[in-house]
Every structure is written in structure tokens, then in C-alpha cells.
């Protein structure tokens, strides 16, 4: 099968591990310990990582840094990277930044995500780096800001998020 320009159809194989065992394990550790175990390869990355070529680079209390590399499978109908790729990356760093502040037995979920798209992405953009920073931790809600930059340090997108924080068990 070929497209309008005669290029061959491409395919992408995505593999992942069942995330449910790790999710249970997350509740037995502090959020920061869990994220560090994931970075060290002791715990598999979540399935979304394989979809957007996501890699966690750093985790400290209240701050998480991740990188992702868009490819053609992330394109929208107008030939650029879909905004969902950007939103997913921003949601990931926001949520994990909150997770890095949580004690064992505590979970979170996103309540909102407000994204500002400042520049478009294509495959030529290459690897992008996202940083999430907790601006106000809390026992019921946490507030986060995040940004995405390209290899030259140009700001591509920003976000703010509120996460619900709750005990589990």
C-alpha cells in the first residue's frame, strides 16, 4: 500500500508489560522511590511510554524530567505532531512530579490540564524534554506547572495542572 506520494506504508510495533502489578507495588513505596525504581529498570515503565517514545530522565521531590521523540505515527492530518502527543507528555511530567511528593499508600489523578501550544512539532524537531514542577503540594490537591523544550532550549509548550491526592487502602 502506498500513500499519495508513493511512499510505502509504515508500521510500528508497540510492546509493554501489564501495568497492574506495578500499580499495586506503587502503593507500597513512596512516590519518589517508585519513580527511581522505574528509572533504574527495577519496575517496568507504564505502557504509555512505548506509545510516545517516553523516557524518564530525572526524579527529585517535586520535580520530574522526561524526554520523548515524536515520529510520523504521531502526526495529525495536517502533517505535524498531534497536540495529544504534547498533552500526554505534559500530563505525564505533571502527574509524576506530584507522585514524587507522595508517601506510600497515597495516589493521585489529574483533575485538569491546561496546555498552551507555543510552537508546532514535526519529526525534524527531534527529541524534546519536558519538566514538571510541583508549585504547591497538598494532602488533597497538588498544583503543578510544566514545559517542553527542544534541543536548542526553545520553549514549545507549557501547562498547568491540578491533581487530586488521596489515600488508598
Kindly describe this structure.
The chain has a single domain, classed as Thiol Ester Dehydrase, Chain A (Roll), CATH 3.10.129.10. The chain is 22% helix and 33% strand. The protein contains four helices and six strands; from the N terminus they run αααββαββββ. The protein is globular.
Give the radius of gyration: 17 Å
Structural domain count: 1
Question: Can you count the beta strands?
Answer: 6
Largest sheet descriptor:
6 strands, antiparallel
Summarize the structure.
With 169 residues, this protein is α+β, with helices and mostly antiparallel strands. It is built from four helices and six strands, in the order αααββαββββ. The chain has a single domain, classed as Hotdog Thioesterase (Thiol Ester Dehydrase, Chain A, Roll), CATH 3.10.129.10.
Which key terms come to mind for this protein?
alpha+beta; 4 helices; Thioestr_dom; Thiol Ester Dehydrase, Chain A; 169 residues; 33% strand
Question: Secondary-structure map with pairings?
Answer:
Blueprint: H1 20-26, H2 31-39, H3 48-52, E1 54-60, E2 63-68, H4 83-99, E3 106-117, E4 128-136, E5 141-149, E6 155-167
Antiparallel strand pairs: 1-2, 2-4, 3-6, 4-5, 5-6
Keywords: Hydrolase
Protein name: PaaI family thioesterase
Pfam family, one: 4HBT
Amino acid at each position: 500500500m502506498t500513500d499519495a506520494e508513493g511512499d510505502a506504508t509504515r508500521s510500528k510495533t508497540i510492546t509493554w508489560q501489564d501495568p497492574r502489578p506495578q500499580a499495586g507495588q506503587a502503593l507500597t513505596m513512596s512516590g519518589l522511590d517508585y519513580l527511581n525504581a522505574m528509572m533504574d529498570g527495577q519496575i517496568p515503565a507504564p505502557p504509555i511510554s512505548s506509545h510516545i517514545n517516553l523516557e524518564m530522565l530525572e526524579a527529585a521531590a517535586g520535580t520530574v524530567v522526561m524526554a520523548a521523540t515524536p515520529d510520523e505515527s504521531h502526526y495529525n492530518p495536517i502533517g505535524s505532531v498531534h497536540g495529544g502527543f504534547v498533552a500526554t507528555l505534559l500530563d505525564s511530567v505533571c502527574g509524576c512530579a506530584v507522585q514524587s511528593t507522595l508517601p506510600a499508600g497515597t495516589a493521585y489523578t489529574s483533575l485538569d490540564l491546561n496546555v498552551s501550544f507555543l510552537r508546532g512539532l514535526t519529526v525534524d524537531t527531534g527529541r524534546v524534554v519536558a519538566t514538571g514542577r510541583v508549585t504547591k503540594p497538598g494532602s488533597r490537591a497538588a498544583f503543578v506547572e510544566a514545559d517542553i523544550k527542544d534541543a536548542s532550549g526553545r520553549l514549545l509548550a507549557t501547562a498547568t495542572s491540578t491533581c487530586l491526592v488521596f489515600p488508598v487502602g
